[in-house]
Amino acid sequence: MREYEPKELLKLCEAIRGEEASQEWLKNNGFRELSEFWDAYEDDEKSFQWLKTNGFIHFAALVDAMSGKDQAKAWLLGNKFTALGILVDASAGKPEKKDGCLLRRRFSTTRKKRIKKESGIFSI
């Protein structure tokens, strides 16, 4: 998995808060996958597919796991994306077991629930 500097993660946070300029900054500065991740989470199927076909399957799995798909979280953990698995729990308001840190989900209130005809890319 690619490592990100605090500046890129801050731009992702700003994009999550709805700042379109930050999302454009991500796209224009070589971090398109972060922009596509957020769009996929906001239920943009084209962005979800882009993640899958451009080497960011872990972000596609993260989107599915954050939408409640247990198979996606199991895939993340089974493929050594432990930090992303912790992020899934933190975004759902579940305590992180190591230090008791509790984070609450603070994403867009306009997010539509991800509903697919099939059970996602990680179905049994």
Summarize this entry quickly:
The chain is an all-alpha fold and 124 residues long. The chain has helices at 6-16, 20-28, 32-41, 45-53, 57-66, 70-78, 82-91.
Could you characterize the architecture of this molecule?
The structure is a single chain. The protein is mainly alpha-helical. The chain has seven helices and no strands. The chain has helices at 6-16, 20-28, 32-41, 45-53, 57-66, 70-78, 82-91. Helix 1 (6-16) packs across helix 2, helix 4 (45-53) crosses helix 5 and helix 5 runs parallel beside helix 7 (82-91). The model is unreliable at 98-119 (pLDDT under 50).
Q: Outline, from the CA principal axes?
A: globular
Strand composition percent: under 5%
Order of helices and strands: HHHHHHH
Main sheet specs: none
Number of helices: 7
Q: Kindly state the percentage of residues in helix.
A: 40-55%
Please tell me the overall pLDDT: 81
Briefly note the structural class of the backbone.
Answer: mainly alpha
Weakly predicted, low-confidence segments:
98-119
Number of strands: 0
Distance between the first and last residues' Cα: 25 Å
Radius of gyration: 14 Å
Strand and helix map with partners:
Layout: H1 6-16, H2 20-28, H3 32-41, H4 45-53, H5 57-66, H6 70-78, H7 82-91
Tag the structure with descriptive keywords.
124 residues, mainly alpha, 55% helix, globular
